Design the sequence.
């Protein structure tokens, strides 16, 4: 059988990085082809080349055996290549039908609304979803927005559909619906490139699995021939256990108690304690409400019910500056948008939350002191940069994360909330971050570790709190928390969504 | 040693401004033997002194990622409040204080909607522009109020320190204070951080709303002060006092290399831009080019100040691609 | 109740509320001003609204794409002066050619804005602040202090403001009003039924998605600017017709009125939402307030702007507060409809039958 799309010998380099190194890749009609790899392995570069956002430096792309050039996303669409992303790109002000058809190359200049609604209803019916073509996109859930994008791809007669972490923000029930859609498309002969970090999903939906590491293709096998451990080993290039190590610590006195914490429509009845020197892991799927609990503790999105008792006294935390004054620090999951001010220097970023410490009597910032602090953290956390006056935006992901950590450690917090602290950073930097977490706990800091990286939570936490759809499913001790226990709690007993 | 500014960006834009300024100055000297005389230079500043005082605070507001279109109306309103109160027999000193207070109030109104309700500042201050001007009209109607006390009229012209009149002294003092605040103080750091990324600033515990509110209050007070100084210089107040100044003010700020999207700019660049615009207008006066052609030239400069860097970038990209293909 | 959300959007409720406000205002002024309900009042308001409406329509096109055009006051002035000059030079010029000259001239100036925004990648507020000054400055130099006066105009033009299209009872619908209404209806139809119109919304609604969907965003934004310029040119011609006398300061400040009308009319200053009818209602609200306040006893004619500014602020604030509330209500209905699948499917089938 001939592949629909074949990438031959593709290379792509960016300043300092070889993103793709002589890559071969094939997509056959009617298959779900899973693409695996750590962040930075070259997956997103490959997708961008397939959708015309990047041009390869060398190599060629074959469509049905004929070489093609994909200059932009409109051309990609013309070749029948469509993509949906974790964050769907919909037009919030337009309705569902318009979102499906807006990008179509049509003959007439006129919009025939009746016909458009009819065709949209038709496509949605073929996908077996009950979504009103007339409702505005603004009010749709993420899952519904993705459905709209899939409908759009179908309406364009897409032959290749790229799904880039489509399940990352979906509930289990929504994931099941998405997979049903995917199977519909597969039966229609569409080639699907599926990217996900969730191993269970890969085994449920994929026909073939290709693993990338450091811009190279490591393996490509039918699903029947692979094992979970084998795939992971291919991804990280070494045995899994080797890079997590926690030292034994004495647990100190009680620092934080959270009782019946809730926020309407987001999470409810959250109860936990954190002691000095303890790492409390927060596991669960993306969208389970873990980040929201963190934001509530840090005062960004205050909770509306329940109690927060910090060192014995009850606190109403209404703003980040208040949380900071109480000794709470929050390392956000979105370090580029929320963690750093990218165009400003590393030193300025580190001193920002504690800028008052650096003021002279007349209110001028003492740059020498600022510099000394930054140099100190540069050494302590081994931030690799030519100068601490360099723009934070020019650092690699791992070094950026260390700057964010520095900026919060410099506020001398007692409770450190870490939200996905190792997402998108390379393996080496990841191990360094884990080492830092272990050290901080050893110094008596209480740490709340939110992570979707299950092995990381299991290895780093003293206890693990599992959340699912805004509910606390349980707290497990280190000894009883196995991968299976946590996954079962995070997913619920069965995949189907039981509503009370 | 830590660099005191961001030298990278400074090198490019500020150098270009300085070079253009030097050319204009040399031209002016060649055209007029009196150009470098102190009284001529003072006069140069005094012709637009009220605008350039407001330029200073506008710089901070634009770096903060907002805009204040209402400044000219606040200038007019400040002057009208003072004139109206004086006409009713209130002492001039008290009237000036009330005028500044009204300016602060305008700032609070703008700041409340922008900082706390999070409305777009363009829309809020556009409404302010119309409303504050309307209040000025209510106070003065279609009259012209003058006959101010002598000391007040002299404030506008008489040399206070050496050859410098009060408003010029105020300008220089404010320039130094604002440069220090923007580039060396915590408040200035917050202004930049918020302008770059409001949410990141909030996540770092910066009091975003207070900073924005503070800026708008400062804007209101300074604009009102500038309007009162304008009244002192002209010796009379109309409802249309300072009408349309907002565009000139914003133009000077943007020409100084301040990004309309916030987060980027230096007071040094704005200082150079002030000098450049003043000298350019003076040079055009020497060539007897009228005021309208002058605004045309300034408008062209404004557009080119963004267009040229963009086009150079395009050209560089094109050149690089050509080179890569050649290789 | 849930189904309502499919057919009426929060934005539409906001537009309808303007009609309500206009009615309230008219009722209020009726109790305050003697003989308010008269054909004279109507004509006076209509004449002032007509020009603002045409300008607001153009401004709406640009704002929908997440841009702004602050130069239209100068375009109006230049186009009206230029058209007036051509007419005084050629008295027997065909009226349609004269209108065409004004529109074409406006479109030319608009295209300069558009090219700089689209291909020069200069932020629209900078470009149009610049051209606001440039167009006016060039006009002043071009005019050399000469003023176009009524007696230089052909008679048809002088008579045009009083020409009736048709009469409803005592109310006479004049040509200018007809033109404004025609513009609004034509462009609303374009926005609704042309693919191009929908894409205008798409670009302003989510520029990133527009790029990924392969929409020709640059050309569409350029077109929006050209149309905005053309409508400003038409507005300039109407200005010439209404006043007959054109100085170099003709149309100063109209850009603010146009933006104000659009914003009051519910056109989202961040693009993606708004309609021509909204802009029309916005212009009517502003025109009614302006002209009625002028005739209010006990109220200084100078109060007008203060109230107008307040009103714009309230309109923007209501966008932020009320529209958010409505939207979250709509979203909640959508959620509840999902969470009660049985009831929902019942409604679905009930609707289908």
Sequence:
């Amino acid at each position: 059988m001939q592949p629909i799309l074949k990438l031959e010998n593709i290379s792509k380099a960016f300043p300092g990085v070889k993103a793709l190194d002589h890559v071969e890749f094939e997509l056959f009609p009617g298959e779900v082809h899973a693409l695996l790899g750590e962040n930075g392995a070259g997956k997103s570069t490959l997708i961008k080349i397939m959708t015309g956002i990047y041009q390869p430096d060398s190599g060629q792309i074959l469509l049905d055996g004929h070489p093609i050039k994909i200059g932009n996303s409109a051309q990609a669409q013309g070749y029948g290549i469509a993509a949906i992303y974790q964050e769907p790109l919909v037009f919030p002000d337009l309705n569902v039908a318009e979102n499906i058809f807006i990008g179509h190359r049509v003959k007439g200049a006129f919009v025939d609304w009746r016909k458009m609604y009819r065709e949209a209803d038709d496509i949605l019916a073929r996908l077996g979803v009950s979504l009103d073509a007339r409702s505005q996109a603004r009010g749709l859930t993420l899952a519904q927005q993705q459905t709209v994008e899939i409908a759009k791809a179908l309406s364009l007669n897409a032959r290749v559909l790229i799904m880039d972490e489509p399940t990352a923000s979906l509930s289990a029930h929504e994931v099941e619906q998405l997979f049903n859609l995917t199977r519909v498309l597969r039966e229609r002969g569409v080639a699907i490139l599926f990217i996900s970090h969730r191993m269970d999903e890969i085994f449920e939906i994929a026909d073939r699995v290709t693993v990338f590491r450091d811009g190279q293709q490591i393996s490509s096998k039918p699903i029947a021939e692979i094992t979970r451990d084998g795939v992971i080993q291919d991804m990280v290039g070494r045995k899994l256990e080797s890079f997590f190590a926690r030292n034994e610590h004495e647990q100190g006195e009680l620092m934080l108690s959270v009782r019946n914490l809730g926020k309407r429509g987001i999470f409810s009845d959250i109860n936990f304690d954190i002691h000095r020197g303890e790492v409390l892991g927060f596991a669960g799927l993306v969208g389970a409400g873990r980040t929201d609990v963190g934001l509530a503790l840090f005062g960004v999105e205050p909770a509306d019910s329940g109690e927060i008792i910090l060192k014995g006294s009850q606190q109403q935390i209404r703003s980040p500056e208040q949380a900071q004054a109480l000794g709470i620090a929050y390392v956000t999951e979105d370090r580029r948008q929320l963690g750093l001010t990218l165009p400003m220097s590393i030193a300025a970023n580190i001193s920002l939350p504690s800028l008052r410490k650096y003021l002279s009597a007349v209110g001028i910032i003492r740059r020498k002191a600022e510099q000394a602090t930054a140099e100190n953290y540069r050494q302590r956390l081994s931030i690799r940069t030519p100068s601490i006056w360099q723009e934070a935006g020019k650092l690699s992901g791992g070094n950026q994360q260390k700057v964010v950590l520095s900026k919060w450690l410099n506020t001398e917090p007692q409770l450190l909330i870490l939200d996905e602290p190792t997402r998108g950073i390379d393996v080496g930097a990841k191990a360094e971050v884990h080492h830092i977490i272990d050290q901080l706990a050893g110094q008596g800091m209480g740490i709340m570790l939110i992570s979707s990286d299950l092995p990381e939570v299991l290895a780093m936490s003293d206890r693990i709190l599992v959340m699912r759809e805004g509910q606390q499913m349980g707290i497990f001790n280190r000894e009883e928390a196995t991968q299976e226990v946590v996954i079962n709690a995070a997913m619920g007993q069965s995949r189907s969504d039981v509503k009370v | 040693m830590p660099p005191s500014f961001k030298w990278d960006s400074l090198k490019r834009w500020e150098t270009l401004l300085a070079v253009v300024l030097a050319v204009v100055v040399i031209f002016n000297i060649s055209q007029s033997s009196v150009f470098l005389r102190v009284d001529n230079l003072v006069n140069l500043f005094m012709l637009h002194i009220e605008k350039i005082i407001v330029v200073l605070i506008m710089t901070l507001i634009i770096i903060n990622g907002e805009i204040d279109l209402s400044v000219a109306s606040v200038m007019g309103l400040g002057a009208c409040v003072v004139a109206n109160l004086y006409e009713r027999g209130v002492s001039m000193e008290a009237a000036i204080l009330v005028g500044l207070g009204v300016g602060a109030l305008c700032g609070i109104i703008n700041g409340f909607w922008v900082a706390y309700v999070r409305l777009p500042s363009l829309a809020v201050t556009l409404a302010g522009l119309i409303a504050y001007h309307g209040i000025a009209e209510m106070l003065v109607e279609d009259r012209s109020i003058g006959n101010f006390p002598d000391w007040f009229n002299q404030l506008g012209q008489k040399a206070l320190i050496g050859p410098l009149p009060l408003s010029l002294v105020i300008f220089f003092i404010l320039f130094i204070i604002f440069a220090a605040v923007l580039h060396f103080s915590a408040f200035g750091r917050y202004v930049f951080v918020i302008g770059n990324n409001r949410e990141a600033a909030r996540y770092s515990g910066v009091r975003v709303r207070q900073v924005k509110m503070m800026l708008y209050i400062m804007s209101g007070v300074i604009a009102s002060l500038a309007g009162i100084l304008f009244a002192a210089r002209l010796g009379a107040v109309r409802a249309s006092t300072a009408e349309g100044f907002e565009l000139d003010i914003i133009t000077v700020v943007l020409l100084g290399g301040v990004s309309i999207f916030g987060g980027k700019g230096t007071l040094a660049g704005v200082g150079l831009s002030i000098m450049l615009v003043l000298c350019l207008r003076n040079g055009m006066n020497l060539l007897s080019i009228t005021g309208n052609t002058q605004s045309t030239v300034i408008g062209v400069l404004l557009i080119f100040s963004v267009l040229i860097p963009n086009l150079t970038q395009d050209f560089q990209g094109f050149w690089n691609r050509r080179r890569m293909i050649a290789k | 109740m849930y189904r309502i959300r499919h057919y009426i959007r929060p934005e539409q409720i906001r537009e309808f509320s303007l009609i309500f406000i206009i009615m309230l205002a008219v009722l209020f002024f009726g109790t305050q001003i003697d003989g308010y309900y008269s054909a004279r009042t109507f004509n006076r308001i209509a004449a002032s609204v007509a020009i603002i409406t045409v300008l607001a329509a153009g401004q709406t096109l640009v704002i929908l794409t997440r841009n702004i055009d602050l130069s239209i006051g100068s375009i109006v002035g230049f186009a009206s002066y230029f058209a007036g000059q051509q007419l005084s030079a050629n008295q027997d010029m065909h009226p349609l050619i004269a209108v065409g000259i004004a529109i074409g001239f406006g479109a030319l100036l608009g295209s300069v804005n558009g090219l700089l925004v689209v291909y020069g990648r200069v932020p629209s507020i900078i470009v149009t602040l610049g051209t606001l000054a440039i167009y006016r400055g060039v006009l002043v130099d071009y005019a050399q202090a000469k003023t176009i006066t009524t007696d230089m105009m052909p008679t048809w033009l002088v008579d045009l403001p009083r020409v009736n299209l048709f009469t409803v009872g005592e109310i006479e619908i004049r040509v200018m009003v007809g033109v404004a209404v025609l513009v609004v209806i034509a462009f609303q139809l374009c926005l609704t039924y042309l693919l191009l119109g929908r894409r205008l919304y798409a670009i302003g609604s989510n520029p990133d998605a527009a790029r990924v969907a392969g929409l020709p965003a640059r050309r569409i934004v350029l077109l929006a600017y050209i149309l905005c310029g053309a409508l400003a040119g038409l507005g300039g011609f109407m200005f010439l017709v209404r006043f007959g006398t054109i100085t170099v300061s003709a149309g100063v400040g109209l850009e603010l009125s146009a933006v104000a009308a659009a914003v009051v009319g519910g056109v989202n200053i961040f693009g993606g939402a708004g309609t021509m009818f909204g802009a029309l209602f916005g212009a009517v609200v502003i025109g009614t307030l302006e002209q009625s306040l002028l005739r209010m006893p006990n109220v200084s004619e100078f109060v007008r702007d203060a109230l107008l500014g307040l009103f714009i602020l309230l309109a923007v604030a209501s966008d932020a507060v009320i529209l958010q509330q409505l939207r979250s209500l709509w979203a909640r209905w959508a959620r509840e409809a999902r969470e009660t699948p049985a009831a929902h499917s019942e409604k679905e089938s009930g609707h289908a039958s």
